[in-house]
Amino acid sequence: MNCFQLRQSVTRLTMAVLLSTIAAQLSIPAIAQPASIQFEPPPPPPKGEPTGRGQGGGSRGPCSPYNNLIALVPVTQGTPWGLTTAERPSIWFHAPNGLLTGATIEFALRDEAGKTLYTSRFPTRNTPPGVFSLTLPNTAQPLQAGGYRWALSISCSADVPDRPISISGRIQRILPQSLLQQQLRQAKTPLEQAAVYAKGGIWYDALTTLGTPRCRSSLPNSALAAAWTDLLQQVNLTPATSVRTITRCGIGQ
Prior knowledge:
Number of helices: 5
Largest sheet: 6 strands, mixed
Helix content: 25-40%
Shape: globular
Strand content: 15-25%
Number of strands: 10
CATH topology: Immunoglobulin-like
Radius of gyration: 26 Å
Order of helices and strands: HEEEEEEEEEHHHHE
Number of domains: 1
């Protein structure tokens, strides 16, 4: 190899190294994929008397707009039931026709023996179709570990006799184990936190973790909306899976 050929080889090698360095510096890191969410149902509770239904009944009077009201809770042994770690959890509902001014909502929480622990009664106001939540307020006693029964009823007119729309279900509070606490600390986003709750079978907390940020911000979050839809579909709550609007959180407070 003569001197000219040697200089050409060195030049090509130098250019190759330089181009490789520039490419490495300009390379765009892979976009992190959003955390997937997978609900793993916990063992069902001991069988007991069904507490009611997870969907509004068939009224033909003033309450008829609420016939399709449903609780966004998996149905277990014929009753909406799920776990929570929260002392004051939220329960979510889908109102396909919204809420109308003039009705009255009553919410009650009882222990498994039927003793009433908390009740709230308040008027509704016009709310567009979508999802709303009821949250146990700070004035209520915090839930202890164990099972509870909740009930929501809507009375629509004091002047026209009509059967109230009623929905009821169960909620069981569990104390978070150290592994769950560690996983939640490591989760960086609401989506990752919701995925931790869902994998642990903790339904109420998973749904609340996805829903609450959407109440607090008017900006759309496609990742949270997609996870919300995915989670509901996994427990056959298909009527609500197309709902991307959360209209009100913590009504009655």
